[in-house]
Amino acid sequence: MKTKKIAPSLLSANFSNIEKDIKMLEEAGADLLHLDVMDGHFVPNITFGPFIVKAIKNVSTIPLDVHLMIENPGDYVAAFCDAGADYLTVHVEATPHLHRVLQQIKAKGVKAGVSLNPHTPLSSIEEVLGDLDMILIMAVNPGFGGQSFIENTIDKLKRLKQMLKKHNVEHIEVNVDGGIKLANIKKVSDAGCDIFVSGSGIFKATNPQEMIRQMKEALK
Ligand code: DX5
Ligand code: ZN
Description:
The chain is of the alpha/beta class. The protein contains eight helices and eight strands; from the N terminus they run E-H-E-H-E-H-E-H-E-E-H-E-H-E-H-H. It has helices at residues 18-28, 50-58, 77-83, 98-107, 152-166, 185-190, 200-203, 208-218; strands spanning 5-8, 33-38, 64-69, 87-91, 111-116, 134-138, 173-177, 195-198. It has an eight-stranded parallel β-sheet with strand order 1-8-7-6-5-4-3-2. Strand 4, helix 4 and strand 5 (111-116) form a beta-alpha-beta unit. Helix 1 (18-28) packs parallel to helix 8 and helix 2 (50-58) runs parallel beside helix 3 (77-83). The longest helix has 15 residues, at 152-166. The structure holds D-xylitol-5-phosphate (DX5) and zinc ion. Zinc ion binds at residues 9, 34, 36, 67, 177, 197.
C-alpha cells in the first residue's frame, strides 16, 4: 500500500518570505514541496530555475518534487538534480527522447517522473513504464495556479490504474496536479491518486495548516 502524500505547490506561496511559508508547511506535516519550473516556451509563464531550487533546499527538511514545464528538459536534468530535487518530473510533450532523459535522472539517484498534459493519451508512456518512479497527471493546462479541475481527469486516472495493474508496475506513484481542493480530494484519491499537489487550495485557505490537516483527514 502506497502512502498518500500532500504536496503544496509553492507557486501560490509568498516568495518575498519563502522560508516562513516553508516552516509553516513543515509544521503542518506537508509530505513534499512541489516546485513549478516554467520557461515561457513550453508554458506561457516564467518562474524560476535551479538557483532558487537550491535556495529552497537549503531551508527545507521536506523532500522536493520538482515539476519541469520547460522545453529540452534533458539539458537541465543535471542542474536540477544537483540543486536538490528528490523527484524530477519532465513533460512527455517536451522531449522526443523521453527514455534517455529518464535514464539521466535515474543516474543521478533522483526519482524519475513524467507528466502528461490533459490532452495527452496514457499510451504515450506505455513503453517507459519500467523506467518510472512517478507519473504526474495534469488536471489543468499547465502554466498557472488557481484554475478549475478538468473532470475528465477522474476517468483518465481510473484507466491509468488499470494500465499500471496490467503491466505489473503498481509501485509507480501517481501524482495529480491542478485544481485540487478539499472538496474533490477524496474523489481524486479513490480514482487512484497517491500524491496530491495543491497550490491555491492550501495557500488561499484562511488557515493553510488546518487545510492540510483536513485534506489528510479526508484521505484516511
Ligand atoms: C500549474 C502548476 C501547478 C499549480 C497548481 O501549471 O503545475 O502545480 O501550482 O495550482 P492549483 O492547485 O492552484 O491549481
Ligand atoms: Zn506543478
